[in-house]
Every structure is written in C-alpha cells, then in structure tokens.
C-alpha cells in the first residue's frame, strides 16, 4: 500500500470499526499511512496528496465522497475501496460526478466485523428491531443486507458452502444467502464456475436457545461482560489510580483465560504468565515485560472483581437457574415443580433484573405459562409497566403464554453429557454446541435441518475421520486444510456459544468452527433492554391490558414464612 498510495486514509463509521477490530495504528503506519480521517467530518484540503477511501457503498458515503471533489478537489486523486458490491446507480452517480479524480475503484468483499479468531459480526444496530418487530416495513431489506454480509465472509474465507437452516426459523435468509453465493461464485478468476467447497453454513435464530442469553454463565469472559460495566472491551481497574485495559486478542493472557471457569482463573494466572514468558526469547521477553506485568495486574483485579460479585449475589442464583435450565438438580433428580425452584429467588431481595432472568428461565422450562400465572409473576417482580422484558420474547418465536397447540414447541432432545465433568453451578451446555457436534459428525436430521443447497456428498465436518482418532496439530494452516462449519445466529450470540466454537474446533482438529451473529453479543442485561426497548410493544400492549384487568394481587411486602406458605397455596402449590 505504501508503494502505491499517499499517507491519507479516509474511513466511514463501519470501516473505522472494521479496521480497529483487526489492526492497530502502528500497522497502518508501517504501510505508510500517517493520517486517518473520518469521511463524514469536515477536513482540511490537502490538494498535493492522494487519498485512500475505504467505505461502504451507501448513498451517504457516496455523497460525502463526491463532496470531497466538488466544486474543488480536496485531494490530488482518490483510490476507492468498497466493503462489498456497489449498486449500479450509486456507481454511476460517483462516476458521473468525479471520474477523472478516481484512479482505482475496487470491491473487496469484507462487510463483516472479525470480533475474534473464530467469531464475526454482521454489524447492524437496527437489525434486531427490523427483523423482530411485528409488521416491520424494512425486514426484507435488512435480511438482504445480512445475506450480503455473510457472502462477503464466505468470499474472504474462499468458501462456497452448502447452506442449511433450522426448520421453521429462517428459510428466507437461507435462500437469500444461497442465491447470492451462487451469483458471487458464478465465475472465478479463471472464468470457470466454482464448485462447492468443504464447508457447511448453518443458519439459526435466537429461538433455538433462549436459555443461554439469560443464564449466569461462570466462565471468565462471559462473566466479565455480564457483571462488570465493560464498554468497547475496556475494563477499568484500580492500580493506585484509575486505569483502563482492553480485553482483546492482543492480550495473550486474556486469550488463555477467557474460556476458563472462574473457579480456576485465579490459580492459573501466575502459571500462564510463566508459560508465556518461557516461550519468549530473552530480548523479546525484556521488551514485553511491562505488558506482561500489566496483564497480570489487570487479570488479578478482574478475577477478584468477579469473585466478589459471585460471592455477594450470583452464587445464590446459580443453583435455581441451573435446575430450571437443565430440568434436573445437581444429583440428576428431575425438577418436578419448577415454581418451587423459582420461589426462593423471588422471595430473596435480588435486584429486578436477576428476578426477571429467573422468571424467564422458569417460563422457558415450561415452554410457556398461563396468563394468570404470568400476571402474578409480573406483579411480584414489579414490572407491570415494563412487561416487554418478558412478553416480547414471543416476537423471537419463544413461547411465553401456553396454548392448546404447544406440541409445536416441544423441546428438542439433548446430547447425553452425564459423563462430562462439570461444576454443579455450571451444568448447562448451550444447545448450539449439540448442533455443532452433530454437524461435525454428520448427524443433523434433514427433517429438522433442511438443505437450501447441499455441499459435496462426501462432506462431514471431521473429513470422515473419527473424533477418537489422533490428529495432527491444530495450527491455523492445519485448520485451513480441513473443512469449515460456519454458524450464523440471527438475534445475537452469547459468550458461552462463542466458547463452544473453540471447544468443538479443539476436539475435532480437522474442522474449524466459525460462529457469527447479528446484531449483538448477547450480554444478558443488554439482551433484555434490547427486547424491551427495540421491539415494538404494539402487539403486547393489548395483552398487558387484558392480563392487568383479569388479575390483581399484592406481594410488595417482605414475606414471612406464613406468607410464603400462602403464596404457594395461591399459586396452586
């Protein structure tokens, strides 16, 4: 880049986030770029220099670009790179207005955000509202945009996958992605039609597993983003003064710790620091020593913060949450009466959000509850005017009110994990891990996972090698030479589900699992607020009025043991 272009790079909001997610300013400087500008802000003209534009092909970006060259050019020349396909009308508009200033114009097919080594995002803050609000006017256009973004991911990976989807979930998105992939790969660089590669793309939505976004997960990364106010991956800690640390893949200690259970983290920090240090040469170690010391301080502080939250509040919630999620207690005894499991949480002075999460887990365990019971729960948690926290899950396809036709929402069978060692407070396994493992072993039922387009008949995720057999090392090159399983979850991905992608990859070293989402990582409180605020309440309002008119009771006082008994009786227990 430095051999061809000047030192000015101009970005829009999305491409700023894109570059920030995968490179640092020092990386840009090494390519000869010393100035990075915002496309949408006023900039001083530098007519003797050339400018690189990296932007989305949107009307707003094209207009801003044209304004840079009308009436007088701000730069000597423009080298334009679009994140994906530029519509003909916008391209013609740009060409007509300032063709003589454009030296290069390319579409580079990267309109997704790489969040981690195996995690990506189709970034669109309004996607959730557009897709899940009833009678949404822009749902189809949002799905079109997401499909384009998924295609650019596949193009970046050089994969032409077979496409499957969870039955009754997102057939429209699966069809869009498959058609756009076919058009994209119609001709390759050698003017030959590209065939399917050793990859599968599975498309699901949040209704597949409503439990995982709500449960208190006790692995390090998930717990940190649930319990600590971390914004843009920045953790604030006290080391004599207020300091900030970024929890990203630049932090080697974070990468090694993030999927560990919190019970193991504190003991592993000094061991991992020694391990990382031992892998460095002396000169590199001396250079990196300040960073290692900072990382150690950061993670000791974060681990202590998390344990403090756990001991103060979360520990009291975990048993009930796990029993409701799994449907059995730690000894394997089936939970026969979920209300008895929920009640201690409601009667304890937990904050409202924790009670909402417990109520949702109770409702999910029953595949919906009666209107009478739901109204009592809503009143007890004191969210009569904020019922969307619970009722709006219906818009995701999750049953909240039980109906005579509940047979259509029967829970799917789960893989037997009784032999796996787990902590008693961490027995739940995200459903998507079952899906990943079944896909890798070629066990997904066609009736539940229809094909939009089949991948090569010989494909299975383990390249026909048993998971019990020994494999070669799992370096990035080894993974790329195997097959890929790509999962896209419409409605967001949890940190526990992200962890599952790494775990399944590690267990099946010839298949790399990549997971993506739109629009959010499902941090529990953020997920609840998003459902309450971003999904239209028009359809739930009438239901709320109906419930409020039919039932009323008051449990606002702190209950005595006698009152607890009366509550159980009033709820038919």
Write the layout of secondary structure elements.
Elements: E1 8-11, H1 13-22, H2 25-30, E2 35-38, E3 46-55, H3 59-67, E4 75-82, H4 88-98, E5 102-107, E6 113-116, E7 119-121, H5 127-132, H6 139-157, E8 162-165, H7 171-184, E9 199-205, H8 220-227, E10 234-238, E11 242-246, H9 252-257, H10 262-278, H11 282-326, H12 338-347, H13 352-366, H14 371-381, H15 388-391, H16 431-440, E12 451-453, H17 476-481, E13 483-490, H18 495-507, E14 511-518, H19 524-534, H20 538-550, H21 561-570
Parallel strand pairs: 1-2, 1-3, 3-4, 4-5, 7-14, 8-9, 9-13, 13-14
Antiparallel strand pairs: 6-7, 8-12, 10-11
Q: Would you kindly provide a brief summary of this structure?
A:
The protein has helices at 13-22, 25-30, 59-67, 88-98, 127-132, 139-157, 171-184, 220-227, 252-257, 262-278, 282-326, 338-347, 352-366, 371-381, 388-391, 431-440, 476-481, 495-507, 524-534, 538-550, 561-570; strands spanning 8-11, 35-38, 46-55, 75-82, 102-107, 113-116, 119-121, 162-165, 199-205, 234-238, 242-246, 451-453, 483-490, 511-518. The protein is of the alpha/beta class.
